Amino acid sequence: MTRQPLLDIKDLTVEFGQGHRTSPLRAVDGVSLDIAPGETVGLVGESGSGKSTIGRAVLGLTPVHSGRVRFEGIDVTRAGPRTRRGLSARLQVVFQDPYSSLNPARTIGQTLAEPLLVHRRLDRRETDAHIAEMLERVGMPADTAGRYPGQFSGGQRQRIAIARALMLEPSLVICDEPVSALDLSIQAQVMNLLARLQRELSLSYLFIAHDLPVVRHLSDRVVVLYRGRVMESGPAQVVYADPVHPYTEALLDAVPAPDPRAQRARRAAQAAPKTTNPPADEGCVFAHRCPYAIDICHRERPALLPLPSRGEKQPEGGRAVACHRSGEPARVRGLHT
Amino acid sequence: MAIFRLAVRRLLSSAPLLFLVSALTFVLVSLVPGDPARTIVGQHVTVEQYEAVRVQLGLDDPLPVQYWDWLVGVLHGDLGASLFSGEAVTKTLNDRLPVSLSLIVAGTVVSGILGVALGLLSARRGGLLTRAVDLLSLLGLAVPAFWFALVLIAVGAVKLRWFPVTGYVPFADDPAEWARSLVLPVISLSLSAVAVIAKQTRDCVLDTFGRDFIRVMQANGFSRRSILYRHVLRNAAVPVVTVLGVVLVSLLAAAVFVETVFAMPGLGSLTQQATVQHDIPVIQGAVLYITVLVVLVNLLVDMAYNRLDPRVRAA
Amino acid sequence: MNLLTATKRPRTAEPGKAPRRPPLIRRVLRRPAGAVSLCWLALLTAATLAALLITRYGPLDQDLGHVLAGPTSDHLLGTDNLGRDLLSRVLFGGRSTLLAVGEALVVFLLIGVTAGLASGFLGGWVDWLTVRTADLLFALPGIVIVLVVLSVFPGNLHAAMITFGALGSPGIIRILRSQTLGIREELYVAAAKVAGLTRAQILRRHILPRLISTVIVQAALFAAIVVTVQAGLGFLGLGAQPPNPSWGGLVADASQAIDRAPWMLVPTGVPLVLTVTALALLGDAVRDAAVEGWSVSKLAAAGAAPPAAAASPTEQADAPDAFALEVSDAVAAPPADVPDDTALLSVRNLSIAIGGIPVVQGVSFDISAGETVGMVGESGCGKSVTSLGILGLVPGGGQITGGQVLFDGTDLVGSADALAGVRGTGIAYVSQEPMVALDPAFAVGRQLAEAVRRHRRCDRRTARARVTELLSMVNIPDPEGVARRYPHQLSGGMAQRVAIALALAGEPKLLIADEPTTALDVTVQAEILALLHTLQAETGMAVLLVTHDWGVVADLCHRSVVMYAGQVVEQADVEQMFTRPLHPYTAGLLAANPHLAAEGEPLPTIAGTVPAPRDWPLGCRFAARCDLADESCTTRPVPLTEPAPDRLTRCVHSPRLLLEGTRP
Questions:
Q1: How far is A23 from chain C (nearest CA, A)?
Q2: Is there a single domain that holds both residue A251 and residue A312?
Q3: Distances (CA, A) of C31 to B134, C28, C213, C575
């Protein structure tokens, strides 16, 4: 990392109150990550991993308990409404649900004009021209602006939501499961659109998703989350090809390969899943499900440490793992393919 | 045991309501431009006599003290005496309570049974019955109980002479006449209640029928009877019970009109008379009684929730 | 209603003018109920204000020569016991009604809208206080409090109406609060925040416009109640003092003469009833009109064949019959018109219509005992409808319009007895959303026991033992403990295991699993898939697995049926289908899967979307999205052919595909 990161998150913790009797739920627990200009960082995890909460915390939609969020060098952790308004031109979002993310009572044109209200006072004609240009960019017909969201399919709405995010010139777009609600063929269209826009407009993405193949396809680097903590992070292709953390491994193993022969071989090799007991209070959050857990895993929380070079390999750039046994060579790989 | 604890907790938490209502009534009453002492003694008495009555009524004390005295009295079952008849308010109210209870309980039972049955039928058959329930619910809102009562009297009592025009026969005197005297009042009281309950039942049953678990049960061979009577009804019951609670409270209010029309000596008509006569102690007492009834109704609804919905039970 | 009008609009963008929504008032007036109600209310207001232009009698003018008269040309509504003209008294009495409604409404809206909005939008202690107060007020019997007020301020209707307005406000406070809370959680409000809009802007642009119709509806309903209550007070002698007229007082007058002139009940009561009806209908009309134009269900908007949502009964009545023409015998699959006797399940030419529109056409396939068949396709292709159609449970009031479903040699179509005999014991079903697949009101064990006892006569204890056994079969660690739990106490994966146990209760020969893992996390999905694998090995049951996930197909299935726009477009052994798809749709769908994508290259895509059933063309339904499409594809329906042994495809180019392969 020679350049200053565009987004820099340090030890982010987010808690949700659950009424006064019970202790608050820690949805995000000491997460650090950064995004360089023009980079896509994928945030992967299952439900309850806190991945969406991180996105919302960056956007200021969820209050931060502790930690720090810097965007373009400015601390925005607890930015007030005025700072947020300034940020909104540079920091944007595309949500998962294309149905709830557009106001059904307002035309597409009215929705798209909204970001302009805050930043640039354009006259009617300029606004319309800008909207038309943006709609064309995302592949929507010119008369879209006069219609209501109800008249569009999920894929089309997601294109419109992307257009709204790009109305000003953002440098970072938080994509919160932008293709999860879409059918396979539509999903591919929207993924290609996101990739093309990134090239054309030199955007950075924080790409949040639960679907591992989708994240791999779009991301430069991935961060794997489990119960609010980072398990592993590193270059996407490397992490996918050679996961170090047992959780990453389990996650990748769980995705059935769309290849009958390969999948049959994998199933034959798979061990029965471990039964799940309630997670330990201290120690590794994954220990109760981990096939390699040893004593220390239940007692001590492993820190997220840069991965030491292993054997013949070069030190792996930007790779970090939170596992007590990450240094042990070949323990598992032979055992578990 | 759990249900008992719940009841106690609910009753305790309704204390603020009782307090609020009584205090509100008390403050309002203190604003009365008229003077109860003057009302009692009249214009032609000496200042001493007038003052004596004021002291006797406690009217010379500051308002919080008066309220405190009244509260203490309430806890001892003493609500004062009517300014007109001089009778103890508690006695008046206790005498009239059975009349209102007969009316309201009968109204609830009738509208509950009819409403649920109508709603169920309309949900299962659809078509004409669905329209009928829609029309009924419109009429239930649009036709005021007192006017409907008069129409019933004009038709059922004056013209056909099937039922007594007005009046109430205590159950102890003659059970048959008691029932006969209740028919028209209960019908006029129940019209809107039946409509509301039928519509709610219909909507909830249809809604439940559309839910995934019903389809899963059908697909896995559960019997039609069991699906309808065990699973659909049980799930539709929670919102229906909510409405039943609201309906019961609204029946308390509607009873004021119906009792007046049919000249029934109940709490409602008493409140109406006391209002016309500005008989403050009676009004205070009646409001207290009615509020307690409301609290009890809400308690019943909560206990029903507790029985019906496991999620409420867990919470 | 609104759903219907909405779905009928053109979904895809047309060049030229875009439809704009007319303003709310116009939409209300277009509805008969709305127009009639508004007319009545307007007429009534005008008539009461201009009463003396309508009747030449004053409200107090007595004519002792004509007392208690019925309607005559002179006294249109008759006279009362003092010979006063009833029309005049009704009109003049209406003034006090309108005034009372006005007063109560102002207070009601002032308190209700402010408190409701503040409570929902600001949250925190404001919300806490408002909710508590509203709850307290809501519990009060309003009319009784009004009586107290009237006993303090005798005859003061203004005080009574202001009090009643305040006592009525908790209703609207609650509704506005929950609506505001709901809207505040909508993603478009989050997007507006991210766009930098101020709170005031969000309130004005996103929240208020959506609340206005609610406010109008609530105001209309409350006005209706006020009219009744005001009349009621008048009736009790607590309103306008005689001889001044009021609607309630007129009814009281009528009650005095009920034995002599029952007619009087009519002119005194009917205006009351009509006014309240008009207000209630107006409320309904506004509610319906408010969502007209943009309320479209997700499925309908997706251009999908909506399994349940769009199939409202209203639509059924409205569906043009012309659509039925598309069902043509030419579409029938020639290779296998005769059911296969050896198969466990043999579906032949199954056609299903929802709301008169065909959504599944001529579907044929077989499942042998112990076999797993995957049914693949995007949403709107008819997979779920087909799988439910087998069980005779077409959603949304749809119907099977043709074909056969032979299970163990018995045709299930249209035979309630055959279906009842098969459901649960022959064919069982597992649905997509495990969290809503179980009855929330009963403990898991009781539901399972009911299923067990339905399928085999046994006493309670045996049933309980069998429940434990079933729960152990689906790898639930503590079967007795779980049996006592309620569905809301289970995790998604656990609930799906219970749902599978429920399906196993009747020891079915075929399990239909409709996207059984789509709603689950990937590691939980893996567990459920493994469980299905084991169960199948242990019990030897066949499985029909509906899915959109190629990975799931590869994992579990022997054979796969690909559906597109209501038809089977390809059917083959899984391995062959993955290596050499013989339909461009299958090929495109396989290639679009990011799992197989080449690094750094755009994903191969299929342009466009699945056409809605209304838009199905005569020829190949995939032609519009297909690279290979030419004239031969669009002129006539494409039959299902068998270009290679055991391979079925609905593509005119299949011989070419067989030689060249589909991938570029």
A1: 19
A2: yes
A3: 17, 6, 15, 58
The listed CATH number (3.40.50.10700, 3.50.50.60, 1.10.3720.10, 3.40.50.720) that belongs to domain B90-314: 1.10.3720.10
Query: Which residues does chain B have within 8 Å of residue C436's beta carbon, measured at their own beta carbons?
Result: 211-213
pTM: 0.83
* Contact check, Cβ <8 Å, A270/C11: no
Q: Which residues of B touch C427 (CB under 8 A)?
A: 219
**Encoding tokens for residue C88?**
């005049």
Q: Which of residues 519-548 of C touch A (CB under 8 A)?
A: 521-527, 529-530, 533, 548
Q: Is residue A234 situated within a structural domain? A: no
CA–CA gap between residue B159 and residue B140 (Å, rounded): 24
- Tell me which chain B residues have a C-beta less than 8 angstroms from the C-beta of C450: 222, 226, 230
Tell me, yes or no, whether chains C and B touch by having 3 or more C-beta pairs under 8 A. yes
Check if CATH label 3.40.1190.10 holds for domain C345-426+506-660: no
Whether the pLDDT of residue B178 is over 90: the answer is no
Find residues 124-163 of chain C whose CB sits inside 8 Å of chain B.
Answer: 136, 139-145, 147-152, 154
CB proximity C124 to A under 8 Å: no
Please tell me whether residues A317 and A170 are part of one structural domain: no
Per-run averaged pLDDT (10 residues), chain A, 337 residues = 80 83 84 93 91 93 93 90 87 90 90 85 86 93 88 90 92 93 89 93 94 91 93 91 90 87 79 57 83 85 78 60 78 43
Where exactly are the structural domains of chain B?
Answer: 2-75, 90-314
What pLDDT, in 10s, does the model give residues B87-127? 888 999 999 999 999 899 999 999 999 999 999 988 888 77
CA atoms within 13 Å, Cβ hemisphere of C461: 0
Q: Are residues A130 and A254 in the same domain?
A: no
Chains meeting B at 3+ CB pairs closer than 8 A?
C
* SS3 call for C400: strand
Question: For the domain C24-296, what is the CATH code?
Answer: 1.10.3720.10
Return d(Cα C63, Cα B113) in angstroms, integer. 50
Residue C577: the pLDDT is: 93
Residues 6+ apart with CB under 8 A from C56: none
Nearest CA-CA distance, residue B23 and chain C, Å = 12
Q: Do domains C24-296 and C345-426+506-660 have the same CATH topology?
A: no
Whether residue C576 lies within 8 A of chain A, CB to CB, comes out as: no
In this complex, the residue of A152, A250, A255 whose CB is nearest that of residue C301 is A152
Query: Do A151 and A277 share a domain, yes or no?
Result: no
Whether residue A1 lies inside any domain: the answer is no
CATH number at residue A160: 3.40.50.300
Based on the fold, state whether residues A130 and A156 are members of the same structural domain: yes
Q: Is A171 on the interface with C (CB under 8 A)?
A: no
Say if residue C321 is exposed, middle or buried (CB neighbours under 10 Å; 0-12, 13-18, 19+).
exposed
| Domain regions of chain C by residue span | 24-296, 345-426+506-660, 439-505
**What token pair was written down for A159?**
């294109």
Identify the CA nearest to B217 among candidates C123, C234, C448, A243: C448
Give the integer Cα–Cα distance in Å for A89 and A166. Answer: 9
| Distance from the C313 Cα atom to the nearest Cα atom in chain A, whole angstroms | 21
In this complex, does chain B touch chain A, defined as having at least 3 beta-carbon pairs under 8 Å apart?
no
Domain membership of residue A80 as a residue range: 7-226
CA B51 to each of CA A218, B36, B37, B54: distance values in angstroms, whole numbers, following the listed order? 92, 12, 8, 5
Element housing A12 (H / E): strand A7-16
CB contacts, 8 Å: C429 with chain B: 215-216, 219-220
Asked, for residue A112, whether it belongs to a domain, the answer is yes
- A134 lies in the same domain as A252: no
Of all residues in chain C, the one with the smallest CA distance to B238 is C441
Q: Using the beta-carbon criterion (under 8 Å), do A105 and C294 form an inter-chain contact?
A: yes
